[in-house]
User: Which sequence fits this backbone?
C-alpha cells in the first residue's frame, strides 16, 4: 500500500532522511517510533504530499507521489499538528466543507455517520472554537476519515489529550484498523503504540533502524526492542517497561 524507495530529505546542509526504504502492506498499523528530531514528522509530511523529497520515490496505493499527487491525496486521510478546522463554523459545517472538497456523494449521510463515530453528533451545531482540544482532535479525525481513505497518517495524535480523549481516540483508531485500512502513526508513547499497532518501526539515523511485527515480539517487551534498536544510551524517552 505504501512503498518508499531510497528517500532522502535535506534541509540545507542537514540530512534528515537518508536513503530510507519502507514498505507498508494493506491493513497494517505501523507505529513510527524514534527519538526527538529523528525525522518522523518529516517522513509523514512527505507521505502526505505536504513536503517534497530531495531524492527518492514514494508510491501510495499504486500511485507515484512525484507525478500523481492528486490521486494519492484522495486515498489519504491526514491528522497532523494543525487540526485544519474552521473555528467559526460548526462541526457539521466543517465536515460539509470537506465533503464538497472531496466531491462526496451522499454527503449528509456520511457526515452523520462520522459525527456519530467520533462522538460529536450531539454537538454538531456548535462552533468548533467552543470545543475542547479533545473534541477538536476527534473532529480532525472525523475530517480525515470522511472520504473513507485507504491510508490514514497520524502525527502524534494523542498529544495534548486527556486520558478519556486518548481512550476515545484509540477506540476510533481500532475501528479504522478493523475495517482493513492502513495506518501509519508517529508516537512517543510506547504504551499506546503497543496497544494499537500491528508493527513497530524505529526511525533513527535517517532511516528505519529496526522493524518488528507485534506477533514476532512474542511476549518480549517493546521498550527492550526500542532500546536495542537505538542503542540503550540513546533511548532516554521510554515510558516504563511496556509488555505486549
Ligand atoms: N522546515 C524545516 N527546516 C529546517 N529544518 C527542519 C525543518 N523541519 C524539520 N527540520 C529538522 O529536521 C529534523 C527532523 O525533524 P522532525 O520534526 O521530522 O523530527 P521528529 O522525529 O518528528 O521529532 P519529534 O519527535 O521531536 O516530533 C529536526 O532536526 C528538525 O529541526
Assistant:
Amino acid at each position: 500500500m505504501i512503498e518508499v524507495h531510497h528517500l532522502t530529505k535535506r534541509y540545507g546542509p542537514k540530512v534528515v532522511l537518508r536513503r530510507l526504504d519502507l514498505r507498508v502492506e494493506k491493513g497494517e498499523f505501523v507505529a513510527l517510533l524514534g527519538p526527538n528530531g529523528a525525522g518522523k514528522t518529516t517522513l509523514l509530511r512527505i507521505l502526505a504530499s505536504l513536503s517534497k523529497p530531495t531524492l527518492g520515490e514514494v508510491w501510495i496505493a499504486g500511485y507515484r507521489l512525484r507525478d500523481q499527487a492528486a490521486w494519492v491525496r484522495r486515498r489519504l486521510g491526514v491528522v497532523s499538528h494543525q487540526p485544519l478546522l474552521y473555528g467559526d463554523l460548526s462541526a457539521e459545517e466543517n465536515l460539509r466543507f470537506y465533503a464538497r472538497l472531496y466531491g462526496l456523494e451522499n454527503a449528509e449521510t456520511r457526515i452523520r455517520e462520522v459525527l456519530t463515530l467520533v462522538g460529536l453528533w450531539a454537538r454538531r451545531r456548535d462552533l468548533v472554537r467552543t470545543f475542547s482540544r479533545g473534541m477538536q482532535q476527534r473532529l480532525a479525525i472525523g475530517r480525515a476519515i470522511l472520504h473513507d481513505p485507504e491510508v490514514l497518517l497520524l502525527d502524534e495524535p494523542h498529544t495534548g489529550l486527556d486520558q478519556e480523549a486518548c481512550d476515545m481516540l484509540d477506540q476510533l483508531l481500532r475501528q479504522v484498523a478493523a475495517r482493513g485500512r492502513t495506518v501509519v502513526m508517529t508516537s512517543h508513547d510506547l504504551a499506546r503504540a503497543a496497544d494499537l499497532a500491528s508493527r513497530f518501526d524505529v526511525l533513527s539515523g535517517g532511516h528505519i533502524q529496526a522493524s518488528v511485527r507485534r506477533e514476532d515480539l512474542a511476549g518480549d517487551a517493546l521498550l527492550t526492542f526500542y532500546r536495542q534498536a537505538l542503542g540503550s544510551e540513546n533511548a532516554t524517552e521510554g515510558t516504563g517497561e511496556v509488555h505486549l
About this structure: The CA atoms of residues 102 and 147 lie 7 Å apart. Strands lie at 2-11, 14-24, 29-33, 55-60, 63-64, 76-79, 151-155, 182-186, 199-204, 207-213.
